[in-house]
Amino acid sequence: MSYHKKLTIGLFGFGVVGEGLYRILQQTPSLKASIKKICIKHADKKRNAPVELFTTDKNVLLMDPEINVIVEVINETEAAFEIVTTALKNGKEVVSSSKKMLAEHMPELLKLQQSTDLAVLYEASACASIPVIRNLEEYYDNDLLHSIKAIVNGTTNFILTRMYEDKLDFKQALLLSQQAGFAESDPTLDIEGYDALNKWTILLNHSYGIVESPGNIVFSGIQNIQAGDAKVAQTKNQQIKLVAQAKKLLNGKVAAFVLPQFVGNDDQLAFVKNEYNGVVIESGFADKQFFYGKGAGSFPTASAVLSDISALRYSYKYEYKKLYHHQPHELTDDFYLQVYVSFQDLSLIPRDRFEWIEEWHARDERKYLVGAIHFRELKNNTWWKENNNSLILLPDPIIENIEIRGLKKRSLELAGIV
Ligand SMILES: NC(=O)c1ccc[n+]([C@@H]2O[C@H](COP(=O)([O-])OP(=O)(O)OC[C@H]3O[C@@H](n4cnc5c(N)ncnc54)[C@H](OP(=O)(O)O)[C@@H]3O)[C@@H](O)[C@H]2O)c1
Question: Are the beta carbons of 211 and 318 closer than 8 angstroms?
């Protein structure tokens, strides 16, 4: 596609993102991109755009030879996958914001991009307005990327911020986020961590060349975090954040997960409040870099879609350098985490599976312990996110190698729990 080629867009979806894109494109005529047709689901909804633009027949867009770009911003995963694959097979480039679809179907999409030699761009799918995918892809060489940690879900960050600053309990903070328009009426995908997990699955590919199914990545949300946990954070000059992170270990393998974490008030992520997102990248020689911005919303998300559309004018494609040009990294589950676990019922905590327990508060309003646990214990079991238990990582939680055998039993004995 030459630089001056006009882009004729077929747009799927006219909701928060789709309508935002339509408005922005009206204000950026220099882009030489115009929407020829918009496919939506419900024909009878009232739209703020000329009625002749709309259709409910996807083939009107997918079979139109004049349309050379399909922008897919719908909210149905399998329909989105079908639209994107058909578009590619019909020779059209694709821009998408559908993180769930991208996370679940990346292997098929990688194959199709290779066989068609067409672009699928999706900057809006992770951290919306923050240009993190293209940065990871273009700027950070494989060997130099030591770690990446991020707040990738604005709804949970809004709830945690309000719990911390206004001393609300979880339900009050959730209600507030719904009133502010951040949480959906069914907020499960956000608060139980699924949305963050999908975004992290996408970013792992561009950070480390790891293509993993979301189901294989350890994660939890914030559904069991209580006001008492936020209080503990406050006494330690820390805040609780839902943090997605990946770190290259000394053996070259990558530890990755999405879990709540205490972050010190001087950590860059503590600066990320309310619905904002933030990404901290640690790389060789450059130390830390911090990206900050809106991770959702009509115009912020549409601006990332627009940037992808604009990139198509100069034939930009993700090269998946970490995956194809380097030796891709592997995930490991062989490391330990320092954790805080709060609970209601002590009998539901398998204390003997901790490597050690160094703090133990059984009489506080929110009972909790602090200790170290092997990552595999979290991978293979779910007790730590059930029955109102909440597991929150300590700052800098990864321990790669510990001489624990003797210590373990002794520390459990000292704590009087075996
Ligand atoms: N909202 C954000 O801030 C944000 C940020 C980043 C990524 N995303 C992602 O972007 C996508 C769109 O989000 P959104 O918030 O804009 O959703 P939305 O407001 O719920 O709008 C969804 C749109 O998709 C249309 N649609 C649904 N199924 C369709 C189908 N089978 N064929 C054609 N059109 C269909 C709907 O049609 P009707 O209008 O007829 O119902 C509606 O216009 C989602 O994958 C979301 O995860 C959203």
Answer: no
Distance 77 CA to ligand 1 centre (A): 10
Atom of ligand 1 nearest to the CA of 79: 31
Sign of the dihedral defined by the CA atoms of residues 19, 73, 258, 175, in that order = positive
Sorting pLDDT into bands at 50, 70 and 90, what band is 405? very low
| Mean pLDDT within 122-148 | 92
Instruction: Pick from 19, 40, 127, 201 the residue to mutate for probing ligand 1's pocket: most ligand atoms within 8 Å of its CB.
Output: 40
The CA 73 to ligand 1 mean position distance, Å, reads 5
Judge if the beta carbon of residue 13 lies within 6 A of ligand 1. Answer: yes
Q: Which of 16, 39, 277 to mutate to test the pocket of ligand 1 (most atoms within 8 A of CB)?
A: 16
- Asked whether 221 and 243 are in contact (CB, 8 A), the reply is no
What spacing in Å lies between the alpha carbon of 125 and ligand 1's midpoint? 12
Question: What is the reported pTM?
Answer: 0.95
**For 399-403, what is the mean pLDDT?**
81
Q: Which residues are catalytic?
A: 199
Q: Across the strands, what pairs with 331?
A: 254
